[in-house]
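User: Structure please.
Assistant: Input sequence and predicted structure:
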Amino acid sequence: MSIRVIVADDQEIARTGLRMILDAQPDIEVVGEAGDGARAVELARRLRPDVCLLDIRMPRLDGIEATRSLAGPAVADPIAVVVITTFDLDEYVYEALRAGARGFLLKDAGPDLLGQAVRAAANGDALIAPSVTARLLATFAGAGATPRPVQPIEALTEREEQILATVARGRTNSEIARELHISLSTVKSHVANLMTKLGVRNRVEIAIWAYETKRVKS
C-alpha cells in the first residue's frame, strides 16, 4: 500500500513541487495539501495520513506548533512529522524536533532524500539530513537554551554508546547494521533500549540528547 502524505507549505509553488516529487514515487501518495499550519493540523486529524511534511514557517500556525499538535508529548495517537526548511541554521528546526518531529530536511535535499525521509518516518524510523545534523544540533545544544539534559539512571553499554553515536549522525537502522556488522533486529533492540534509558520517545530525541551531553561533537 502507498504511504499517504500531507504536504504543508505557504508557498503554492513549493507545495506543487513537493507534491510532484512525492507523487512520482510509486509507493507514496499525496492525499492533501495545506497552505498554513492550522489547515495542516485539521487535514491530518481528519485524513490520518502516514506522514505529514511540514514547512517550518507558515501563517496562522507555524510548523513548530503544528508539529506539537500532531506529534507532541501530549498527543495520544501521534502522526509522523518530517519538517522541511530553507535554512540549515534555523533555530526553529531544533524546536520542531523538540516538539516531536521525527526528522528534518532542507528544501534542496533532492527527490531521493525526500523519499527516504518520508519512508523512514512511515516505518517508525527517522532521517535527519546528514549535511546539517552535527552542526545544527551541536550549535543549539551548546547555546544554553534548554534545561540540563537528564542523565540515564542505568549506564549505557559500550555497544549502546556506539549506536548512540551513529543515530546522532543521522544513520538509519539499516546503515547502522551494515556499519557495525550486526543484524537489523539487534539495532532495533539497542535503539529501543536507548529510548528507555534516556527517557525519550524517538531517535531524533536520542540525537539531541547525544549532542546536549557532549557524547557526540561536531
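The mean pLDDT is 85.
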